[in-house]
Task: inverse folding
């Protein structure tokens, strides 16, 4: 298990390398964070292509803003916030709400063993996309990024109680949307 | 650096949470995203360096103009003061001396030359003293 603190330090280390050798070290940060940043951005933009654009802009900005990342108390949430801001900019510009029902943009990768589960995973993604962004991003930060409600609240500029209630509402909606899946998991 | 250490949280309670956790791993960046990001990074830094260089040149030029103009003025004044007077100027001074002291023009010319030599010697002495300091 990768603890958030350890991951923070790895992100900080990447930022330090960027400070020393600039774009040569950007690949290190990309390899370390791209998948996680992308799935978070995708829950906001609801479209992987837009999420990739947001990720690209944010990582390129890190080249100039690496000192902010090095000095940040928690570099990983700082980087997540950078990607979130870029995702929101793209979302505001494109207003792609019409893509809600489609998952055709998703570039997925599963091992042969997990191939049977892929459909289930896609259903989860579909359900996540149907949630309001403020709820879905709390759900993914809590579950995928293992963040506390206090950390989520700090990142999203809301109180921990608000973050917790968004999580609760979001999870309730997801439970009803993937009830069939739920019963399969229980078995 | 190992790629993408995705966090695992085995303690997640509900099946829905577990299903969401499992679904998080399947979305991966497109194959061409990595080279695109690195290329964009290279371009960004190149542009930044170009802007900095242009800014540096503009700053240096501005500084040169700012410092150069007063320096040029000072240098012009300095060279003017140490310049040997022209023959017309010497003639003019000789005529003034001759009239003031009621002497002949030739003596006036001698006097004028003498004063020029004297002032040059004084200036040369001052320059040497400044150089010694």
Result:
């Amino acid at each position: 298990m990768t603890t958030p603190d350890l991951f923070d330090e790895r992100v900080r280390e990447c930022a330090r390398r960027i400070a020393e050798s600039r774009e040569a070290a950007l690949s290190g940060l990309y390899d370390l964070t791209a998948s996680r940043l992308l799935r978070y951005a995708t829950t906001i933009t609801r479209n992987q292509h837009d999420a990739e654009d947001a990720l690209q802009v944010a990582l390129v900005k890190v080249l100039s803003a690496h000192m902010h990342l090095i000095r940040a108390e928690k570099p990983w949430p700082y980087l997540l916030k950078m990607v979130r801001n870029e995702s929101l900019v793209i979302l505001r510009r494109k207003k792609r709400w019409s893509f809600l029902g489609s998952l055709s943009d998703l570039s997925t990768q599963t091992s042969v063993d997990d191939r049977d589960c892929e459909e289930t995973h896609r259903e989860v993604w579909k359900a996540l996309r149907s949630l309001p962004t403020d709820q879905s991003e709390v759900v993914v930060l809590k579950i995928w990024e293992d963040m506390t409600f206090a950390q989520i609240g700090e990142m999203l500029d809301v109180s921990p109680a608000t973050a917790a209630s968004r999580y609760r509402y979001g999870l309730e909606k997801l439970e009803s949307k993937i009830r069939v899946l739920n019963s399969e998991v229980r078995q | 650096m190992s790629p993408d250490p995705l966090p695992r949280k085995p303690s997640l309670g509900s099946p829905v949470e577990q299903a969401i956790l499992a679904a998080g791993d399947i979305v991966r960046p497109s194959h061409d995203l990595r080279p695109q990001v690195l290329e964009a990074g290279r371009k960004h830094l190149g542009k930044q360096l170009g802007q900095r260089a242009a800014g540096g040149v503009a700053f240096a030029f501005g500084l040169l103009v700012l410092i150069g103009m007063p320096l040029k003025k000072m240098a012009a004044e300095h060279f003017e003061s140490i310049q040997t007077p022209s023959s017309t100027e010497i003639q003019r001074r000789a005529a003034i001396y001759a009239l003031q002291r009621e002497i002949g023009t030739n003596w006036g010319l001698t006097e004028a030359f003498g004063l020029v030599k004297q002032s040059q010697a004084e200036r040369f002495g001052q320059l040497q003293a400044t150089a010694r300091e």
